[in-house]
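SAMPLE LOG
Freezer: B-3
Tube label: C17
Construct: single chain, 307 aa
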Amino acid sequence: MAYSEDHIALAAEYALGTLDADERAQVETMMAVDTEYTALVHAWEYRLGVLNQMVGSVEPRPIVWENIKAAIGHSTEQQAPLVLPEAPPPPPPEPPAEPVASPVVAGAPPVAMDLSIDNSNVIELAGRVRRLRSVASIATALAAALVAMLAVQVYRPELLPEALRPKPRIQTVEVKTPAPSPVPSAQYVALLQRDAGSPAFILTVDAATKNFTVRKVGADAEPGKSFELWLISDKLQRPRSLGVIGGGDFTARPVLSSYDNDTINTATYAVTVEQAGGSPDGNPHSAPVFTGKLIEAVPPAAPSPAR
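STRUCTURE (predicted):
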Protein backbone atom coordinates (compact mmCIF):
# COMPACT_ATOMS: atom_id res chain seq x y z
CA MET A 1 0.00 0.00 0.00
CA ALA A 2 1.35 3.47 -0.94
CA TYR A 3 1.43 5.93 1.98
CA SER A 4 1.53 9.69 1.83
CA GLU A 5 4.43 11.78 3.06
CA ASP A 6 2.44 12.63 6.20
CA HIS A 7 1.98 8.96 7.08
CA ILE A 8 5.69 8.24 6.51
CA ALA A 9 6.66 11.26 8.62
CA LEU A 10 4.33 10.12 11.42
CA ALA A 11 5.93 6.67 11.38
CA ALA A 12 9.43 8.18 11.59
CA GLU A 13 8.50 10.57 14.39
CA TYR A 14 6.76 7.74 16.25
CA ALA A 15 10.03 5.78 16.13
CA LEU A 16 11.88 8.88 17.38
CA GLY A 17 9.31 9.51 20.12
CA THR A 18 8.63 13.14 19.19
CA LEU A 19 4.83 12.94 18.69
CA ASP A 20 2.27 14.30 21.08
CA ALA A 21 -0.39 12.12 22.70
CA ASP A 22 -3.02 12.59 19.96
CA GLU A 23 -0.59 11.82 17.14
CA ARG A 24 0.77 8.75 18.93
CA ALA A 25 -2.79 7.50 19.37
CA GLN A 26 -3.39 8.03 15.65
CA VAL A 27 -0.28 6.02 14.72
CA GLU A 28 -1.10 3.21 17.13
CA THR A 29 -4.65 3.02 15.72
CA MET A 30 -3.28 2.69 12.18
CA MET A 31 -0.82 0.02 13.34
CA ALA A 32 -3.67 -1.94 14.93
CA VAL A 33 -5.66 -2.11 11.69
CA ASP A 34 -2.87 -2.10 9.08
CA THR A 35 -0.03 -4.63 9.25
CA GLU A 36 1.86 -2.93 6.41
CA TYR A 37 1.92 0.33 8.34
CA THR A 38 3.18 -1.60 11.36
CA ALA A 39 6.03 -2.92 9.21
CA LEU A 40 6.76 0.66 8.09
CA VAL A 41 7.05 1.82 11.71
CA HIS A 42 9.32 -1.13 12.55
CA ALA A 43 11.49 -0.32 9.53
CA TRP A 44 12.02 3.21 10.83
CA GLU A 45 12.84 1.83 14.27
CA TYR A 46 15.45 -0.46 12.71
CA ARG A 47 17.04 2.36 10.70
CA LEU A 48 17.16 4.74 13.61
CA GLY A 49 18.32 2.00 15.96
CA VAL A 50 21.66 1.94 14.10
CA LEU A 51 22.21 5.54 15.16
CA ASN A 52 21.53 4.58 18.75
CA GLN A 53 24.12 1.78 18.56
CA MET A 54 26.79 4.16 17.29
CA VAL A 55 26.29 6.59 20.21
CA GLY A 56 27.66 5.42 23.52
CA SER A 57 26.00 6.19 26.82
CA VAL A 58 27.28 9.32 28.60
CA GLU A 59 26.67 9.82 32.29
CA PRO A 60 25.98 13.52 33.05
CA ARG A 61 27.91 15.24 35.80
CA PRO A 62 26.15 15.88 39.13
CA ILE A 63 26.15 19.60 38.49
CA VAL A 64 23.83 19.08 35.51
CA TRP A 65 21.08 17.62 37.68
CA GLU A 66 21.49 20.46 40.19
CA ASN A 67 21.11 23.00 37.37
CA ILE A 68 17.95 21.25 36.14
CA LYS A 69 16.39 21.32 39.60
CA ALA A 70 17.29 24.97 39.97
CA ALA A 71 15.76 25.76 36.58
CA ILE A 72 12.40 24.18 37.43
CA GLY A 73 12.18 25.69 40.91
CA HIS A 74 13.05 22.61 43.01
CA SER A 75 16.14 24.09 44.54
CA THR A 76 16.36 24.08 48.32
CA GLU A 77 17.44 27.73 48.36
CA GLN A 78 14.88 30.52 48.65
CA GLN A 79 13.66 31.57 45.22
CA ALA A 80 13.26 35.24 44.42
CA PRO A 81 9.69 36.27 43.61
CA LEU A 82 8.94 36.22 39.92
CA VAL A 83 8.26 39.72 38.65
CA LEU A 84 6.57 40.02 35.28
CA PRO A 85 7.26 43.06 33.13
CA GLU A 86 4.43 45.52 32.71
CA ALA A 87 2.53 45.06 29.49
CA PRO A 88 2.36 48.10 27.17
CA PRO A 89 -1.05 49.77 26.91
CA PRO A 90 -3.17 48.50 24.04
CA PRO A 91 -3.31 50.72 20.94
CA PRO A 92 -6.48 52.82 20.49
CA PRO A 93 -9.13 51.12 18.38
CA GLU A 94 -9.34 52.21 14.79
CA PRO A 95 -12.64 53.72 13.59
CA PRO A 96 -14.81 51.29 11.70
CA ALA A 97 -14.62 51.44 7.96
CA GLU A 98 -17.48 52.93 6.06
CA PRO A 99 -19.64 50.17 4.59
CA VAL A 100 -19.65 50.13 0.83
CA ALA A 101 -23.12 50.19 -0.57
CA SER A 102 -23.64 47.57 -3.17
CA PRO A 103 -25.84 48.32 -6.14
CA VAL A 104 -29.40 47.32 -5.52
CA VAL A 105 -31.43 45.99 -8.34
CA ALA A 106 -35.01 46.95 -8.21
CA GLY A 107 -37.21 44.11 -7.13
CA ALA A 108 -34.24 41.86 -6.11
CA PRO A 109 -33.92 40.65 -2.53
CA PRO A 110 -30.88 41.79 -0.56
CA VAL A 111 -27.86 39.46 -0.77
CA ALA A 112 -25.96 38.60 2.41
CA MET A 113 -22.13 38.55 1.96
CA ASP A 114 -20.20 35.87 3.82
CA LEU A 115 -16.96 37.47 4.98
CA SER A 116 -15.74 34.43 6.97
CA ILE A 117 -12.35 32.91 5.91
CA ASP A 118 -11.67 29.16 5.78
CA ASN A 119 -8.37 28.56 7.59
CA SER A 120 -8.44 24.75 7.37
CA ASN A 121 -6.00 24.74 4.42
CA VAL A 122 -3.58 26.95 6.34
CA ILE A 123 -3.57 24.60 9.33
CA GLU A 124 -3.17 21.52 7.10
CA LEU A 125 -0.31 23.12 5.17
CA ALA A 126 1.47 24.10 8.40
CA GLY A 127 1.24 20.52 9.67
CA ARG A 128 2.56 19.17 6.39
CA VAL A 129 5.48 21.61 6.41
CA ARG A 130 6.36 20.53 9.94
CA ARG A 131 6.32 16.86 8.97
CA LEU A 132 8.38 17.50 5.85
CA ARG A 133 10.95 19.28 7.97
CA SER A 134 11.00 16.32 10.32
CA VAL A 135 11.54 13.92 7.41
CA ALA A 136 14.33 16.15 6.04
CA SER A 137 15.99 16.23 9.46
CA ILE A 138 15.77 12.45 9.74
CA ALA A 139 17.19 11.99 6.24
CA THR A 140 20.05 14.37 7.03
CA ALA A 141 20.80 12.50 10.26
CA LEU A 142 20.79 9.17 8.39
CA ALA A 143 23.14 10.53 5.72
CA ALA A 144 25.52 11.90 8.33
CA ALA A 145 25.40 8.60 10.21
CA LEU A 146 26.18 6.65 7.04
CA VAL A 147 29.12 8.93 6.23
CA ALA A 148 30.43 8.55 9.76
CA MET A 149 29.98 4.78 9.61
CA LEU A 150 31.89 4.58 6.32
CA ALA A 151 34.70 6.68 7.74
CA VAL A 152 34.90 4.50 10.84
CA GLN A 153 34.88 1.33 8.70
CA VAL A 154 37.84 2.64 6.70
CA TYR A 155 40.00 4.16 9.46
CA ARG A 156 38.88 2.64 12.79
CA PRO A 157 36.88 -0.55 12.13
CA GLU A 158 37.63 -1.86 15.63
CA LEU A 159 35.25 0.76 17.10
CA LEU A 160 32.22 -0.76 15.35
CA PRO A 161 30.15 -3.67 16.65
CA GLU A 162 31.15 -7.09 15.38
CA ALA A 163 28.16 -7.29 13.01
CA LEU A 164 29.04 -3.98 11.31
CA ARG A 165 32.76 -4.54 10.86
CA PRO A 166 33.91 -5.13 7.27
CA LYS A 167 34.97 -8.67 6.53
CA PRO A 168 38.69 -9.11 5.85
CA ARG A 169 39.49 -9.57 2.18
CA ILE A 170 42.11 -12.13 1.26
CA GLN A 171 43.94 -11.52 -1.99
CA THR A 172 46.27 -14.11 -3.46
CA VAL A 173 49.20 -12.72 -5.40
CA GLU A 174 51.09 -14.99 -7.75
CA VAL A 175 54.76 -14.11 -8.14
CA LYS A 176 56.39 -15.52 -11.24
CA THR A 177 60.13 -16.00 -11.12
CA PRO A 178 61.95 -15.43 -14.38
CA ALA A 179 62.99 -18.55 -16.19
CA PRO A 180 66.71 -19.26 -15.98
CA SER A 181 68.61 -18.31 -19.09
CA PRO A 182 69.71 -21.33 -21.10
CA VAL A 183 73.33 -22.40 -20.66
CA PRO A 184 75.24 -22.15 -23.96
CA SER A 185 76.17 -25.60 -25.25
CA ALA A 186 79.43 -26.74 -26.74
CA GLN A 187 80.09 -26.07 -30.42
CA TYR A 188 82.10 -28.40 -32.71
CA VAL A 189 83.61 -27.45 -36.08
CA ALA A 190 85.06 -29.54 -38.93
CA LEU A 191 86.96 -28.16 -41.94
CA LEU A 192 86.08 -30.28 -44.96
CA GLN A 193 89.00 -29.95 -47.36
CA ARG A 194 91.18 -31.87 -49.84
CA ASP A 195 94.83 -32.70 -49.08
CA ALA A 196 95.19 -30.07 -46.34
CA GLY A 197 94.41 -27.34 -48.80
CA SER A 198 91.98 -24.52 -48.35
CA PRO A 199 88.65 -25.66 -46.89
CA ALA A 200 85.75 -26.19 -49.27
CA PHE A 201 83.08 -26.46 -46.52
CA ILE A 202 82.86 -25.63 -42.80
CA LEU A 203 80.70 -28.01 -40.74
CA THR A 204 79.36 -26.73 -37.38
CA VAL A 205 77.57 -29.04 -34.88
CA ASP A 206 75.66 -27.95 -31.74
CA ALA A 207 76.27 -30.47 -28.94
CA ALA A 208 72.93 -29.83 -27.20
CA THR A 209 70.54 -29.97 -30.16
CA LYS A 210 72.75 -32.10 -32.50
CA ASN A 211 71.82 -29.80 -35.35
CA PHE A 212 74.54 -29.09 -37.90
CA THR A 213 75.14 -26.33 -40.40
CA VAL A 214 77.31 -26.60 -43.54
CA ARG A 215 78.76 -23.39 -44.94
CA LYS A 216 80.06 -23.46 -48.51
CA VAL A 217 83.42 -21.70 -48.69
CA GLY A 218 85.29 -22.61 -51.87
CA ALA A 219 83.55 -25.45 -53.71
CA ASP A 220 81.30 -25.28 -56.77
CA ALA A 221 79.36 -28.31 -57.99
CA GLU A 222 79.61 -29.39 -61.61
CA PRO A 223 76.53 -28.86 -63.79
CA GLY A 224 74.08 -31.75 -63.28
CA LYS A 225 75.89 -32.86 -60.11
CA SER A 226 75.31 -32.35 -56.34
CA PHE A 227 77.52 -32.43 -53.27
CA GLU A 228 76.32 -34.91 -50.60
CA LEU A 229 77.52 -35.09 -46.99
CA TRP A 230 78.28 -38.43 -45.36
CA LEU A 231 79.03 -39.66 -41.80
CA ILE A 232 81.70 -42.39 -41.66
CA SER A 233 82.31 -44.25 -38.35
CA ASP A 234 83.81 -47.53 -37.21
CA LYS A 235 80.59 -48.08 -35.22
CA LEU A 236 78.56 -48.16 -38.42
CA GLN A 237 78.66 -50.84 -41.12
CA ARG A 238 78.54 -48.32 -43.99
CA PRO A 239 78.57 -44.55 -44.48
CA ARG A 240 75.36 -42.76 -43.63
CA SER A 241 74.05 -39.93 -45.77
CA LEU A 242 73.39 -36.61 -44.03
CA GLY A 243 71.72 -35.09 -47.09
CA VAL A 244 72.54 -33.04 -50.14
CA ILE A 245 74.37 -29.75 -49.60
CA GLY A 246 72.23 -26.99 -51.05
CA GLY A 247 73.28 -24.42 -53.58
CA GLY A 248 73.17 -21.56 -51.05
CA ASP A 249 75.90 -20.47 -48.69
CA PHE A 250 74.38 -22.28 -45.65
CA THR A 251 72.65 -25.66 -45.32
CA ALA A 252 71.15 -26.73 -41.95
CA ARG A 253 69.97 -30.20 -41.02
CA PRO A 254 68.71 -31.88 -37.77
CA VAL A 255 69.52 -35.46 -38.85
CA LEU A 256 72.30 -36.06 -36.30
CA SER A 257 69.74 -36.49 -33.47
CA SER A 258 69.59 -40.27 -34.16
CA TYR A 259 73.29 -40.73 -33.30
CA ASP A 260 74.97 -40.73 -29.89
CA ASN A 261 77.52 -38.10 -28.91
CA ASP A 262 80.53 -40.39 -29.13
CA THR A 263 79.69 -41.41 -32.69
CA ILE A 264 79.16 -37.79 -33.71
CA ASN A 265 82.39 -36.53 -32.13
CA THR A 266 84.70 -39.30 -33.44
CA ALA A 267 83.26 -39.79 -36.94
CA THR A 268 84.76 -38.62 -40.21
CA TYR A 269 82.64 -36.33 -42.36
CA ALA A 270 83.03 -36.60 -46.12
CA VAL A 271 81.60 -34.94 -49.21
CA THR A 272 81.09 -36.84 -52.46
CA VAL A 273 79.95 -35.74 -55.89
CA GLU A 274 76.66 -37.43 -56.78
CA GLN A 275 74.08 -37.07 -59.48
CA ALA A 276 71.70 -34.15 -59.26
CA GLY A 277 69.51 -34.59 -56.17
CA GLY A 278 71.89 -36.96 -54.37
CA SER A 279 72.47 -40.72 -54.21
CA PRO A 280 69.39 -42.68 -55.30
CA ASP A 281 70.06 -45.72 -53.07
CA GLY A 282 71.67 -44.22 -49.93
CA ASN A 283 75.21 -45.33 -50.87
CA PRO A 284 78.06 -43.12 -52.11
CA HIS A 285 78.84 -43.54 -55.85
CA SER A 286 82.19 -41.77 -55.86
CA ALA A 287 85.24 -41.43 -53.67
CA PRO A 288 85.14 -38.66 -51.01
CA VAL A 289 86.33 -35.35 -52.40
CA PHE A 290 86.48 -33.38 -49.13
CA THR A 291 86.89 -34.83 -45.59
CA GLY A 292 87.37 -33.61 -42.04
CA LYS A 293 86.83 -34.37 -38.33
CA LEU A 294 85.11 -32.37 -35.60
CA ILE A 295 87.09 -30.33 -33.10
CA GLU A 296 85.68 -28.47 -30.10
CA ALA A 297 85.53 -24.78 -30.97
CA VAL A 298 83.38 -23.40 -28.08
CA PRO A 299 83.36 -25.26 -24.73
CA PRO A 300 80.10 -25.56 -22.78
CA ALA A 301 79.52 -22.69 -20.32
CA ALA A 302 79.58 -23.58 -16.65
CA PRO A 303 76.18 -23.07 -14.91
CA SER A 304 76.01 -19.96 -12.76
CA PRO A 305 75.83 -20.62 -8.98
CA ALA A 306 72.39 -20.49 -7.45
CA ARG A 307 71.57 -17.28 -5.59
